[in-house]
Write a structure and sequence with these properties.
Elements (H helix, E strand, L loop, with lengths): L10 E7 L3 E8 L2 E5 L8 E2 L1 E4 L5 E3 L1 H5 L8 E3 L11 E3 L2 E3 L1 H20 L3 E8 L5 H14 L3 E6 H12 L4 E9 L4 E9 L2 E10 L4 H15 L9 H17 L5 E6 L4 E6 H7 L1 H18 L8 E5 L6 H11 L12 H13 L9 E5 L4 E9 L2 E11 L4 E2 L1 E8 L7 E8 L9 E9 L10 E8 L5 E7 L5 E6 L2 H4 L2 H16 L8 H9 L1
Parallel strand pairs: 1-10, 10-11, 12-17, 14-18
Antiparallel strand pairs: 1-2, 2-3, 2-4, 5-6, 5-7, 8-9, 12-13, 13-14, 15-16, 18-21, 19-20, 19-23, 22-25, 23-24, 25-26, 26-27
Helix pairs in contact: 2-3, 4-10, 5-6
Length: 522
């Protein structure tokens, strides 16, 4: 049985939009399977090149032009998603989501050519530590590429689903370490009879395999007495290309050679010196792992399996860190480059109620706190812009939470909340998601009128904010989050109906986690 999108004749797929490579998968015969690109390869390099006559090249052909035409080629743009960065490619500048859309468009063409079917729904993966702006940019890239995307899933959660398909009868606690080209995520989760529950997530959105490559480039350039400023673009690009090859070779070899034809030079690099140059990066990975364990209230010896996901986990120093920290060899049953896409395909099948995965359910957690801006009285002064969390980081989703707030000044007749995402006590240091204003507050002395702010947050990234004046019952509602920008009217109505049920049945009061989670993803 294939992933047919609700009987509409099209297919539902999973897409891993990666920093270094991107790929797609679907369900065939009850198992997730990678969909090969036009070259028969699982991986499409996330590289875009535009030649002199304006022809756009994506993937392997773009990567092949990188050394000779570095100014006409862009890569690693996923790291700038959600920013105002403009990436120069040839004579033009593009936003990261525009470049990502070109990669996604190539994925779409390859999928439809390979399967002979139209994509009617896609689950797209994002790093767990992507914030709202980055997720919104990802949704925009899908829209530009003509890919109907109704659901995002965190990359380590997707990897857990890929593992869970083959271990649905198991009862174990798993740590997923996902080191991709540009990001690192770690999730601690429990698998029990097909239910996959995420306990905690931590990560670093600026730490990935490309950073390890940068350390190797710095090492080799230093030994050759080269600087970026002193070399031409093509020479430096050739050096980076040589170091990239060397990094892959050092996965299996104790040493390798890096040649730079422009200078007629060649040198030997030992794996040990490369690993020494990366010591600080490994330390940052260790910090993330310990944070995830602390948030899950688990010790390393309570973890039954350690999954390594992402191509960069092939580096021996990463596996060695995992073995040292957890006291066990990592589980390598999943192809590290493919696990996330395979899991996204499983999620797509769950979303469309396919029989092969009817016993699989996954819950996730909020990677960031969500709350409002408030003012606090200190002596005779008010401190404004204080962040008041309503849904804490690590809260199991879906959830509904509320807090009470009171008027700040005499005669106040309206209350306006800024809605924020982040962990800092000051809203100015967090990410603003929107504003909700409620009028009709009965005038009275400061502190005598109260409003309830309720946040209801689901697995699709849909946040509904209700602000209710308790004395009058007047409620103002706002929908926030990237999901409401990408769902159709019908899908949005269905999701809002689920949110309404959730408000009557808070997550904590429901004994049947499985039923709630399936209701939210179906």
């Amino acid at each position: 049985m294939t992933s047919e999108a609700s009987g509409r004749g099209g297919i539902a797929i999973g897409i891993d939009l990666g920093t270094s490579n991107s790929l797609a998968a679907w369900m065939v015969g009850g198992e997730p399977v990678i969909i090969p690109n036009r070259f028969g390869s699982a991986l499409t390099p996330s590289v875009v090149s535009i030649d002199g006559d304006g022809t756009v090249l994506v993937g392997a052909s773009a990567r092949a032009r990188r050394v000779a035409h570095p100014r006409e080629t862009a890569q690693n743009f996923k790291r700038d998603m959600g920013t105002d960065q403009r990436v120069p490619v040839g004579r033009q500048k593009y936003s990261p989501e525009e470049l990502s859309a070109l990669v996604l468009s190539q994925i779409r063409q390859d999928v439809e050519a390979s399967t002979g079917r139209e994509i009617l729904d896609a689950v797209v993966t994002v790093p767990a530590y992507f914030g709202e702006a980055q997720r919104r940019a990802t949704a925009r890239a899908c829209e530009l590429a003509g890919i109907p995307m109704e659901r995002m899933i965190n990359e380590p959660t997707a990897a857990a689903l890929a593992y869970g398909v083959g271990a649905r009868d198991a009862a174990c606690r798993v740590a997923v370490l996902d080191l991709g080209g540009g990001t690192f995520d770690v999730s601690i989760l429990d698998i029990n009879d097909g239910l996959i529950e995420i306990s905690s997530t931590a990560g670093d959105a600026r730490l990935g395999g490309e950073d390890f490559l940068d350390r190797l480039v710095e090492l080799v350039a230093s030994r050759m007495n080269l600087t970026r400023r002193s070399e031409s673009d093509s020479t430096w690009s050739s050096l980076v290309h040589g170091c990239e090859r060397a990094k892959h070779e050092l996965t299996d070899a104790e040493s390798t050679r890096v040649a730079l034809a422009a200078h007629g030079r060649e040198l030997t690099v030992q794996r040990t010196e490369f690993e020494q140059a990366c010591a600080q990066l490994i330390h940052r990975i260790e910090i993330c792992i310990r944070r995830a364990l602390d948030d899950a209230k688990r010790s390393p010896n309570e973890i039954d399996e350690v999954l390594l996901v992402g191509g960069a986990t092939r580096m021996p120093l990463v596996a060695r860190l995992a073995t040292t920290m957890f006291g066990r060899l990592p589980n390598r049953s999943l192809p590290p480059d493919e696990a996330v896409a395979l899991g996204a395909a499983v999620q797509a099948a769950i979303k469309h109620d396919e029989d092969a995965v009817e016993d699989l359910v996954v819950t996730d957690i909020a990677p960031f706190s969500l709350g409002v801006d408030t003012s606090e009285r200190l002596a005779h002064h008010h401190i404004e812009g204080v962040f008041s969390p309503i849904i804490d980081r690590g809260t199991v989703l879906p959830t509904s939470r509320s807090r009470l707030y009171s008027t700040m000044v005499d005669g106040q007749v309206h209350i306006e909340f800024g809605v924020y995402q982040g962990e800092h006590s000051l809203c100015s240091r967090n990410t603003k998601l929107g504003v909700v204003r409620v009028d009709g507050v009965p005038p009275g002395p400061a502190g005598t009128q109260h409003v309830e702010a309720r946040f209801t947050y689901d697995l699709n990234g849909l946040l509904e904010v209700d602000v209710t004046v308790l004395d009058t019952g007047v409620t103002q509602t706002a929908l926030l989050g990237q999901a409401q920008r990408t769902m159709s009217k019908t899908e949005l109505a269905r999701a809002r109906e689920s949110l309404q049920r959730l408000k009557f049945h808070p997550r904590d009061a429901l004994p049947n986690t499985r039923a709630l989670a399936r209701a939210e993803v179906g």
